[in-house]
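Continuing the series of single-chain predictions for the mutant panel. This is the parent chain; the variants come on the following pages.
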Amino acid sequence: MCQMNVLEAKTNFSKILAMLESHEEDEVVICKSNKPVAKIVLVPQVDVSKRIGIAKGKLIYPDDINFMDDEIAAMFYGEAE
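Parent structure:
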């Protein structure tokens, strides 16, 4: 854990991000008048490849899901039923 005051953090913000990304620090505490007021941490990365298909087999819909298609089309396009 690293602590720095507001001015120092403002001046070295890019360095703070680099320290977090390289895992040199796990968090940086920002202080105002020597009192901690904020903590900067690295956002955990989510593996995007695991998001696709996450709900496979969990979606349930009725067999007659399209039963109102003609009625809805008539509402939009004014077609006679």
